[in-house]
Amino acid sequence: MNTRKRTAKIDLKQYGMLIALVAIIVLFTVLTGGKLIKPMNISNLIFQNSYVIILAIGMLLCILTGGNIDLACGSVVGLVGACAGTFIIENGWNVYLSIALCLLIGIAVGMWQGFWIAYVGIPPFICTLSGMLVFRGITLLILKGMTLAPFPAAYQQLSTGYIPDIVNEFSLGGTKLNLLCLLVGVLIAVGFCASQVIGYMNKQKKGYENQPILVMVIKMIVISAAVIWVFYLLARYRGIPTVLIILGILLVIYSFFTQKTVRGRHLYAIGGNMKAARLSGVKTKQMMFFAYTNMSFIAAIAGLVFAARLNSAAPTAGQSFEMDAIASCFIGGASAYGGTGTISGALIGALIMGVLNNGMSLLGLSSNLQQVVKGLVLLAAVAFDVISKNNLIQLPKLFKNKKSSATIESV
Amino acid sequence: MGNTILKMQNITKVFPGVKALDNVNIEVTEGEIHALCGENGAGKSTLMNVLSGIYPFGTYEGDVIYQGKVCRFKTIKDSEREGIVIIHQELALVPYLSIAENMFLGNEQATNGVINWDLTNQKAAEFMAMVGLNDSPSTLIKDIGMGKQQLVEIAKALAKNVKLLILDEPTSSLNESDARKLLDLLIEFKETKGITSIIISHKLNEISYCADKITVIRDGQSIETLVKGVDELSEERIIKGMVGREMTNRYPARQHNIGDVAMEVRNWTVYHPFYANRKVVDNVSINVRHGEVVGFAGLIGAGRTELAMSVFGHAYGTKISGELELNGQPVKLTSIPQAIEAGLAYVTEDRKGDGLILTNSIKHNTTMSRPAFISKRGIIDKDLEKLKAEEIRVKLGVKTPSVEQDVGNLSGGNQQKVLVGKWIFAEPDVLMMDEPTRGVDVGAKYDIYQIINDLVSQGKAVMMISSELPELLGMCDRIYVMNEGRLIAELDAKDASQEIIMSHIMQDSKGGIGA
Fold this sequence. Notes:
The complex is a heterodimer. Chain A is mostly helical. Chain A has 17 helices and two strands. Helix content of chain A is 75%, strand content 1%. A two-stranded antiparallel ribbon of chain A has the order 1-2. In chain A, a hairpin with a 2-residue loop joins strand 1 (171-172) and strand 2. In chain A, helix 2 crosses helix 8 (213-236) and helix 3 (73-90) runs parallel beside helix 5 (124-143). In chain B, strands 6-9-10-3-11-12 form a six-stranded mixed beta sheet, with helices on both faces. Chain B has a six-stranded mixed beta sheet with strand order 18-21-22-15-23-24, with helices on both faces. In chain B, strands 2-1-4-5 form a four-stranded antiparallel beta sheet, covered by helices on one side. Chain B contains 17 helices and 24 strands. Chain B has four domains: 4-83 and 163-243, P-loop containing nucleotide triphosphate hydrolases (Rossmann fold); 93-160, no CATH class; 264-343 and 429-515, Rossmann fold, CATH 3.40.50.300; 352-427, no CATH class.
């Protein structure tokens, strides 16, 4: 069947990285004797990587517009943290008002960069390099080189907090569990399955081409199982981290935006062929402006989360985060020339880096060595991308005899 | 006359889907100026690229015999070593390097990789004197005019010890006196240094002026060679050779059902986006009716593309002035989305560069021109999108199993159909099609003509810009002729012929260069 072969081909790159992620998880689980997937460590993984994942979401939109990156977002993380520290710790302002103000500052910073990039035509690399210096400098000026601490508990909740359980004590088979967390996990799984089934029935009703039932069922089982398992592990520790909710909301919104909206499609079009996009009626400058404004807005969120996690506003906060975000997108299959890449890919990329970091730390490897490994993984991922693109014709052949379900099964 | 310096025998060059050269023969005698004439796309430049090794030995059939030896050039370096130098229409000079640096680029005056600047500048000055350039060798290329840049190219060729100089449209961007100077220089080199030149030009008066022999190429075949003193070398004679192809039924018939004026453009003037004083469209007034195909003839640079693009929501040019009416209503379209909304479509001449996103699917490319048709409140209905894209694909006969296919994997003809389909999807009233059959094979051409006929039978208006005169004559109801930004003639297609159109253009160009 035509459709099946095609699915296998399209899925190859996405699932390729997913398989790599699973392989890395399995590898480190074995090497650390199971420490990696201990409930507490899963929780830690989420805390450690949340801000990189958040930044990667914003970075992906910039990269989509033509391989353009934002070097300034790490500095914006620092700047927003410094602002939050000044507002909340020094001035004692209301936490929520301060958060809103910080997000506005992020948007303003983004508009500044977007203006130069989109309307003046400064190459993004140069403009954001300037931003990197400028905003780091402003951060240092605001903090006068010192660290502000500590934040009030209400603010810390933003990052290191957990959603409180609905019942006081709940245990299953002798293990203490967070019931709310477990329920949310099940609900997400059920919701996912329901959306798949509804989508399938809608398509069937309108007579559109549909995915094979077997593929759908396997997809449902695998994803539901993975979700419930992760939430079960979380439930065994302290429940749902607040930051996971923020992450989840951002991932859903931006996935929807990139995959389902006209504006999202325009980002891909600009990256694919700027001139053709313009001649097709895409407001290219507006979209570039949006991508960079959004990036700094996202960086502001990451900055708030990170400051809460550190429980301080430090002048060096966010340094070189931009590199991790960029690497996540590229590892996750975004093209260095723009036009291809997905939010889920960026997530997978960030998780690969995160698990590598965490796993190597658990093994007691030095952070120096970790850098080397991370660098090589980035190179390998992009090399895989480039080589598979050059052999576009040969690669699908490898998968010709397997159904797309086979690819998923191997997950 | 001297010996034969170059003989190209039975040269055949095939591109995917197109036979660009078909058994071409040309013989050049040492110390002559040999002109190559032919319409756009006849294969002149392809032939010269074969000669200079841009298309390496083995990618074409036939023999290139230079100075009695069969050549096997793998790269342009190989041909330059033998003294064959090609100067392209678009000059290959680096704007921010000096004249001297450009002249010895790739041929540096160096010992052990260290450049001797004194020697470079001294030698540059020598060669510059030969071509009559008296600027300093350290002047940057960007600071001298097009005429002088052309001279730098020739000096560069001299520095490579040129024996056979090939010039592709050397005077296309020069004014009259610079052009004359250049031609005189070629004649001088021929007489004093015995340098052989091959010159490709559209300006037939220039060819008559300087050429000793003229080879006419048409549709990838060498038609005839005219020799000065033996044959008549008048412009009329050359034009006859260039366009005198036999006309078979290559154009599908259609019912002519012409309605009211769909688009009226009055006193339209457009300036170049970078050179603010250069008028690219000069006070042009045209109209297109419903159910009508209106052709635009002219040479490259006549301002046809610029006219269409500037009408299309000011997609090109600055200081655009003039009136635009759609269906009798005056409109002002200053952005592309506005133009699309108003029912205009511009099908670009450069499908890969400006038209399609090669890394995206047929589906995405098709719906890009009017996403509102497949979305509600900015949210795309992917199933509807697929359905609509599939409809268009079937309608246009794009040969591929699915709309999920990346456009980059399609043949030229199919890509062109996707490009046209993308604009049909937008449901325009007026389609401005720029070179709609460029680089597609005969079968796909016929399909595209059929599509155009379908469109006009639905009452759409089609503006067809083409450099292929037979195509314009075969498809259009009316033909406008443009030259150097001006509208110079409006012809009823029934009364028009290639000779008439060409002589309009030549007459007009001569007005510029003659005197």
